[in-house]
Amino acid sequence: MLDQVLAANVTGLHVSAWLMLPFAILLSAIGLAPFIHRSWWEKYYPFVSIGLGLFVFAYYCFCLDYRRMAEIFVEYFSFIVLIGSLFVASGGIFLHTERHATPWMNTLLLAVGALVSNIIGTTGASMLLIRPFLRINRPRIRGFHIAFFIFIVSNIGGGLTPIGDPPLFLGYLNGVPFQWTLQKVWDIWLLALVLVLAVFFLVDTRSYRRWLLEKHRHVRGAGFELRGSHSFFFLFIILAAVFARTPVREVIMIIAAAAAHRFATKEALRANEFTFAPIREVAILFAGIFATMVPALDWLAQNAHRLGIRTPGQFFWSSGILSSFLDNAPTYLNFLSAAMGLHGLALGNLEHMTILLSRHAGFLRAISVGAVFFGATTYIGNGPNFMVKSIAEHAGVKCPSFFGYIFRYSLPVLIPIFVLIWLLFFR
User: Fold this and answer.
1) Rounded to whole angstroms, how far apart are CA atoms 25 and 44?
2) What is the pLDDT of residue 11?
3) What is the pLDDT of residue 60?
4) 225 burial class (0-12, 13-18, 19+ CB within 10 angstroms)?
5) Cα–Cα distance between 328 and 325 in angstroms, integer?
6) In this predicted structure, what is the pLDDT of residue 191?
7) Nearest CA-CA partner of 167 in 369, 389, 385
8) Phi/psi of residue 326, nearest 5 degrees
9) Cβ count near 62 (within 10 Å)
10) What is the C-alpha separation between 18 and 141, in angstroms, rounded?
11) 3-state DSSP call for residue 95?
């Protein structure tokens, strides 16, 4: 993946801003079509996504550089294999308790999920924990439960280690020491996590009290059930394979996922209501997203030096806003390259990375936080986000729409917290 992203920065392609129109159309369709005509969208979204993606794919192949599309195809394949293999392996693990979640219990679970995200990654933690989280909240599940799960477990939680989120892993591959983020970003991470958890606790407490007033009864069962524990073995094989190179990484993941599904207990799969429908939806939509976002990424690489971004605060907001709608991993790398170029340094040179870390660490700190945290602001900001939404919807949960997620949750909850972080650390 690193080689692919770096290649995007050196192709020298002259990309017109008009080529970003298919990406804008696809995002608009994802956000608005379910409101306008849900049944039409559910039937025809594969044609919309694949059609727009093929348009950009064909233009690059015949008019620009087919190698760029070959690179993005490999990147998409790696992405969907990782997401899909974790989805399949976690589908064979059934965690359950008879106890229904109180606001305190939910807040604790999300906090634990944030810590787990740094150990097995935001994708692994999301796939492992979303189904148990849905089950214990089933009697009173609301859209905000899904939104805050994405905020905390699928994004912000993984901001401490290179394993936690793909942008940080790219930094590690480019010479950022493994422990650097933990040492330099822990205070920002802790502040953001505590604030988001506090807002969630207040919202969930209000919802819980309304639920009790409607004469519902809280179940205080203490039983705990685990089925399919052997699937953890396959899950950790998939996570360990992240450190391998393409195509060995993908081969290991596919074999491990196939074995996990083959040997999964039927009771665990049935209890999880496991189907392949969520991963099918994500695979189709992200095929279009990956193809149509290429012009936006290339235009950014082509024009980064003209954007007038020169301070850590500007890098925080710029990398963050673009990470909300573009893949946050290549966005991180583009801005890291721009930050190094601002100081006469070159990405890929380990000595230059040492200079950046010793003299201009604030820039890397801002880019790291922006890329990871802002990935939570839309369903497409980070890989696990849409996967969590799809799993929840197939479990019968009414999730916020694309724009509903942004305007009801991201803007009023996350943006004020990000403004505070900017004032305290990057202004």
Assistant:
1) 15
2) 46
3) 92
4) exposed
5) 8
6) 97
7) 369
8) -105, 165
9) 8
10) 42
11) strand
Nearest to 192 by CA among 426, 425, 414: 414
- Residue whose tokens read 């991963």: 279
Residue 361 C-beta-side C-alpha neighbours within 13 Å: 12
What pLDDT does 13 receive?
63
Mapping DSSP to helix (H, G, I), strand (E, B) and coil, where does residue 93 land? coil
In whole angstroms, give the CA distance from residue 180 to residue 162.
9
**pLDDT the model gives residue 91:** 87
Query: Which residues are CB-neighbours of 303 under 8 A, at least 6 positions away?
Result: none
Alpha helix locations (H) across 12-165? 21-63, 66-91, 103-136, 143-152
Q: Which parts of the chain register pLDDT below 50?
A: 1-11
Q: How many CB atoms lie within 10 A of CB 173?
A: 15
| The token pair that represents 140 in the structure block | 């009173």
SS3 400: coil
Q: What's residue 417's pLDDT?
A: 97
Predicted pLDDT of residue 4: 41
Provide the residue type at 220 as one letter. Answer: R
Question: Residue 9 and residue 334: Cα distance in Å, rounded?
Answer: 7
Say if residues 8 and 71 touch (Cβ distance below 8 Å).
yes
- Residues of 154-170 as b/e, b for ≥16 C-beta within 10 angstroms? bbbbbbbbbbbbbbbbb
Burial of 191 (0-12, 13-18, 19+ CB in 10 A): middle
Q: Which CA distances in Å does 51 have to 47, 56, 65, 355?
A: 5, 9, 20, 46
The per-residue pLDDT for 101 is 83
- DSSP letters for 288-329: HHHHHTHHHHHHHHHHGGGS---SHHHHHHHHHHHHTTS-HH
Backbone angles phi, psi at 264, to 5 degrees: -65, 145
Query: Phi and psi at residue 314, in whole multiples of 5°?
Result: -65, -40
C-beta separation of 256 from 231 below 8 A: no
The reported pLDDT for the residue numbered 6 is: 40
For residue 395, what is the DSSP state? T
| Pairwise CA distance, residues 72 & 58, whole Å | 13
Q: What does DSSP assign to residue 413?
A: I
The structure tokens 């979640």 sit at 101
Which two three-digit tokens encode residue 198?
């506090």
Beta bridge partners of 95: 226
Q: Residue 367: its pLDDT value, please?
A: 95
